[in-house]
Design brief:
31% of the residues lie in helices and 27% in strands. By secondary structure, it is of the alpha/beta class. It has 2 domains: 96 residues, ATPase, nucleotide binding domain (Nucleotidyltransferase, domain 5), CATH 3.30.420; 119 residues, Nucleotidyltransferase, domain 5 (2-Layer Sandwich), CATH 3.30.420.40. The strands form 3 sheets. Strands 3-2-1-4-8 form a 5-stranded mixed β-sheet, with helices on both faces. A 5-stranded mixed β-sheet has the order 11-10-9-12-13. Strands 5-6-7 form a 3-stranded antiparallel β-sheet. InterPro entries: ATPase_NBD, ROK, ROK_cs.
Amino acid sequence: MTSFNLGIDVGGSKIAAGLVDRRFRVSKLKVLPTSDSNLLEQLLDLIASYGCVDAIGIGMPGQVLPSGEVKKLGNIKHWKTVNLKKLLEKRFKVPVNVINDAKAFTLAEAVVGGGRNFRSVVGIILGTGIGSGIVFDRQIYIGSNSLAGEIGHIELLNGQFLEQEVRKAGRFNKASDARRFLRTLISVIVRSVDPEIILVGGGWSRIPGMQKELEAIVRTLRKFPPKTKVKVSKLNHAGIIGACLPLFQHRD
């Protein structure tokens, strides 16, 4: 009998959900706008709509503690801190994995996507917010406070967070418009983590010319030009798959 996990990728503007099998194929995909006022009830209704599943994995756009507690969500104003793992396991009687959405994206890329042939992988989600994940040898590194990879909250010399500066800049129509922000992001990651590959996903990844822009930035970084590869993600439904991956790994 085929085993299915339900994967849910919660973003600042939309939620994507689907059933994931052991070959990481996604079926019964559903996409809906993220509720700013009642996200928890929206998630409960969405999960119930799938009926019986073997396990549930959810990627959330904010700080997620190892216990499954989800703290403040930057782009969802009315979220209240809750242990989502405990709540869902009690309600649906199946194992639940709760993970930061950018970390879910990175884990999927590292295991089944563009980073699968590399030992050190960094993933970046650039969209409504800025998130990142770090994977070494197919294991997520979360840090002592579950904040590893929160590059959007790097404080700049003007006292603003990088994510705030990006929002003030508005919408980008071509990759070169985002060059100064991309350069800061890539430089910080290369100098601090020095991964073999960086995978970029989210809305920015679909901006025309993004792959060429990323490659040009890496080539022109000053002092110790890195050999790090930077690629636009080509893995469909990475957030959904990544939220479920630890559940498959633990079962094995």
